[in-house]
Every structure is written in structure tokens, then in C-alpha cells.
Specification:
9-stranded antiparallel sheet, 8-stranded antiparallel sheet, mainly beta, Jelly Rolls
Length: 242
């Protein structure tokens, strides 16, 4: 049995909480850290979500809060089938201004599949001239990550330049819970396969983001220096095969 669902409806993007909402995490003091750039320009046309964000948001204490600058979460989660597989596919165009050439992590566009029941994440990152697939279990604020007798937290990036730079590329991630396997595809070609995944994903929140990935320094955040990231996203096609 196969089910298909489209996560798009970007014309509702200002009605936060309808289809998409601004991402972020609750803070220990009861406040909420929003992934929202105050000067982001958001345009929806021909079914495509366009976001142009001059980067300004920084967090000097928590790495995960510093990394994501502007991000939308799907209001609905996608439940992972016990048997079979679930796949997520969309087109992304990434362009940046003022970022360091060849340094993907100085500013990029992201697809993030986030399981807030386990802290696990599957991602694609794309910048002007490079992209990466990402496989991780992270200490998200307020998320209880299962105990492990192996490495509990990790984030494995795999970078490449073999894509259509500054143009739309098709990104797809497939997860099979029974086989503990993740496969990444770029423009229809398999580019990465992870087997023996050490954690069971239960559900995915789809996140569309603009991010950096710069380690906090002893003085705090070093992720913002005047760069701008321009992101374009197609609707996300979710296919569940049971």
C-alpha cells in the first residue's frame, strides 16, 4: 500500500500554525527561541516559497540555537511506518551573498527531517557551490535522547560539489525503520546509504531552513558577518510505502 501527501500550501505561510510554523525551541526560563530573521523577505509565487534573509540572529550559549537562523516547521508530523519506508522529496535552490567561497557552513539552505521523540535528524544542506547530506542524533533543547552504550550524540556530514550550483536540484531522503537504513538521492541518483542506523526514528517534523554551522568560540557566536542567504523551496512530496 502506498500513500502520498504534499506539504506545500505556502500561500498560508503568514498564517503560522496552519500548515507551517516558525521553528525554535523552548528555553529553560520559559521563553521560546524563534528561528526568525527580522528582516527576512518572504515571497510565494507559482507554488514556490522564496526566503531572502540577511543573517543577524545569534546565540552565544547554545550551538543548536545559533545554527538555525530562519526556519519553518511543518505543523503536522509524518509518522514512520513500522514496516516499509517513508520518503521525502523536494526541489531546493540556494544562493548566497557575502559567504566565504567553498565554505558551505558559512550560510546555506536546508531540508531538515527532525524526530523530536529521539533527537535524530536527516538533512540536506545546499549553498552557492557545495551541498551536504547529514545524519545525526543531537541534543535538542527539551528533547529526551535515548540512552546508548555507544556514541549517543553524533552528526556525520558528507559534502560534495557535484550538483547544479545556484539552480534547482531535487533532493530525496528515504528511511526504512525495519531495515534501519537511510538513503539520500540527488537528482534521482543515490549519493549516500547509511545502514545499521543505531536509533529508530518514530516521526518526522519537516523543516525548511536557512542556517550556518559555526562552532561557538570562547567569546560566543561567530556565525554572522553580514552574509545573506536566498532560499527557494518547492512543496515536499511525502510517500509512505507499507
Amino acid at each position: 500500500m502506498e500513500q502520498e501527501r504534499i506539504f506545500g500550501d505556502f500561500h498560508t505561510i503568514l498564517s503560522e500554525g496552519e500548515v507551517w510554523k516558525i521553528g525554535g525551541f523552548p528555553m529553560p526560563d520559559g521563553s521560546f527561541w524563534e528561528y526568525r530573521e527580522p528582516n527576512a523577505v518572504v515571497i510565494v509565487r507559482n507554488g514556490i516559497l522564496y526566503v531572502r534573509a540577511p543573517l543577524s540572529r545569534q546565540n552565544n550559549q547554545v550551538q543548536i540555537l545559533d545554527n538555525a537562523k530562519h526556519m519553518y516547521y511543518s505543523v503536522d508530523d509524518v509518522l514512520v511506518p513500522e514496516e516499509g519506508e517513508v520518503s521525502f522529496e523536494l526541489q531546493i535552490r540556494a544562493r548566497t551573498q557575502g559567504t566565504v567561497p567553498g565554505d558551505l557552513y558559512d550560510g546555506y539552505v536546508s531540508l531538515n527531517l527532525l524526530d523530536f521523540t529521539t533527537g535524530a535528524a536527516l538533512d540536506f544542506f545546499a549553498s552557492n557551490d557545495k551541498y551536504a547530506s547529514v545524519y545525526a542524533v543531537l541534543p535538542f533543547p527539551g528533547v529526551e535522547v535515548p540512552e546508548s552504550n555507544k556514541t549517543r550524540y553524533f552528526c556525520i556530514f558528507k559534502e560534495d560539489t557535484n550538483f547544479k550550483a545556484r539552480e534547482f536540484n531535487t533532493y530525496k531522503i528515504t528511511y526504512n525503520r525495519a531495515n534501519d537504513e537511510v538513503v539520500f538521492y540527488l537528482n534521482g541518483e543515490e549519493i549516500r546509504r547509511e545502514t545499521n542506523v543505531p536509533i529508530k526514528f518514530n516521526q518526522f517534523t519537516i523543516a525548511l531552513g536557512i542556517m550556518t554551522e559555526k562552532d561557538l568560540s570562547p567569546e560566543g557566536s561567530v556565525s554572522v558577518h553580514g552574509q545573506t542567504v536566498i532560499a527557494e523551496y518547492s512543496p515536499v512530496k511525502v510517500t509512505i510505502k507499507e
